[in-house]
Each structure stands twice: as structure tokens, then as C-alpha cells.
Write a structure and sequence with these properties.
heterodimer, A: mainly beta, 5-stranded antiparallel beta sheet, 11 strands, 52% strand, B: 4-stranded antiparallel beta sheet, 0% helix, globular
């Protein structure tokens, strides 16, 4: 049973500070990792993808991957109230129970609140 | 305007009815997916299709059926065999499989 674990929160961060979101995964063979942002009642929106160990930066967002520790994180710098949402970590693993490796396995998400 | 569309946005089903959720994409993506999201839960994979006329079961396929007759379309039928169908249903697509997936706006299904 492949699992993706996230702290459900809520994680409360002051406006302008750095928000740090963490995710661990169980499938050691996983190769592709994604962060999605989901506002209440809406569908997930892709924020970042990362495939190699290390950091990947895109604007205020930095994704970090450590395959040895099976750990993925997302840092949001200069947090804004509009960043308040649920952040979903997702992993493409090495095969689903129904066969194939194509679907994403999602964590339950971390609810982030940016306090003005 | 490229993207993924899902209809209807809200759907109400009576006990024992089959209902079909529509998913259309004009991104020229080969792969399409259906997920289900329950409150406080992550998304779970129902079915996916890597190419036209082919599809595979995901983790929770029981009580659901799909077809992929056209590249642009991947409808999901929720049958009466699905005992707890009330959920938020999300369709996604990717250029190929496996690859980065993009989501449609979702259909919220409620059983009356």
C-alpha cells in the first residue's frame, strides 16, 4: 500500500513569513513529485513539479526533494493571504493496485492559513 | 481557450440511478484520469486511460465505468452498484502517461 503523508494542519503563518509544508512517501521507487494548491470548493491547481534531488525554485515557491529520506517539501516565501489554501502533495509511484503506474497518489493535504 | 471542462458542476442522483459525468479536453493530451475526493481526504484514482479505446482500473473502480471512444472525451458513469457515491469528482489529463496532470473544475455529486 503506497502512502503519502502530510500534516493536516491547520498551519498558521504570519503574512510576509516563510511557510514550510512537508510530505513523506512510502514508495522508494517513486520518481515524480508534485505540489498542488486547492482552494475550498475548487479543483487542484499545479504549483510545482520536481524529479531530482535538491531544490527547484519558481518565483516565491521552492520545492525540495530528498529521495534518500523519502521527503518532499514546499517553501512559500513572502506569504500572502491569497496563499491560504490546502496544499496537496502527490507522487507518481511504481504501480497502482489496479495495474500501471499512471495515477497520482495524493496526501490528504495541509491546510495553510496566512494571517494578515 | 484550451483546457479541461467537466459537466455538470452539480449533480443530484436518486438511489438506484446511474449517472454519467462528462469530461472533455482540447489540450491534445493522450492520457485522462478520474479521481474522487471525499471531505478531509486526498484524491483517489478511479480509472485512467493512456490512449483511445483503452482504459485501466485505479484503486477504487468498483461501481464505476468509463469509455474512451474519442481522444477528447472520457465520461464516467456512476452506477447503482456504487454504495457511497456522494463526493467531488475530478477529471485530469496529461500529455502522456505518466506525466504532469492538470485538473478540470470538478463535478459535485450528491445522492438524495
Amino acid at each position: 500500500q503506497k502512502e503519502v503523508e502530510q500534516n493536516s494542519g491547520p498551519l498558521s503563518v504570519p503574512e510576509g513569513a516563510i511557510a514550510s509544508l512537508n510530505c513523506t512517501y512510502s514508495d522508494r521507487g517513486s520518481q515524480s513529485f508534485f505540489w498542488y494548491r486547492q482552494y475550498s470548493g475548487k479543483s487542484p491547481e499545479l504549483i510545482m513539479s520536481i524529479y531530482s534531488n535538491g531544490d527547484k525554485e519558481d518565483g516565491r515557491f521552492t520545492a525540495q526533494l530528498n529521495k534518500a529520506s523519502q521527503y518532499v517539501s514546499l517553501l512559500i516565501r513572502d506569504s500572502q493571504p491569497s496563499d491560504s489554501a490546502t496544499y496537496l502533495c502527490a507522487v507518481i509511484g511504481t504501480g497502482h493496485s489496479g495495474g500501471g503506474a499512471d495515477g497520482l497518489t495524493f496526501g490528504k493535504g495541509t491546510h495553510l492559513i496566512i494571517q494578515p | 481557450d484550451g483546457g479541461i471542462t467537466q459537466s455538470p458542476k452539480y449533480l443530484f442522483r436518486k438511489e438506484g440511478q446511474n449517472v454519467t459525468l462528462s469530461c472533455e479536453q482540447n489540450l491534445n493530451h493522450d492520457a485522462m484520469y478520474w479521481y474522487r475526493q471525499d471531505p478531509g481526504q486526498g484524491l483517489r484514482l478511479i480509472y485512467y486511460s493512456q490512449i483511445v479505446n483503452d482504459f485501466q482500473k485505479g484503486d477504487i473502480a468498483e461501481g464505476y465505468s468509463v469509455s474512451r471512444e474519442k481522444k477528447e472525451s472520457f465520461p464516467l458513469t456512476v452506477t447503482s452498484a456504487q454504495k457511497n457515491p456522494t463526493a467531488f469528482y475530478l477529471c485530469a489529463s496529461s500529455i502522456a502517461s505518466p506525466d504532469t496532470q492538470y485538473f478540470g473544475p470538478g463535478t459535485r455529486l450528491t445522492v438524495l
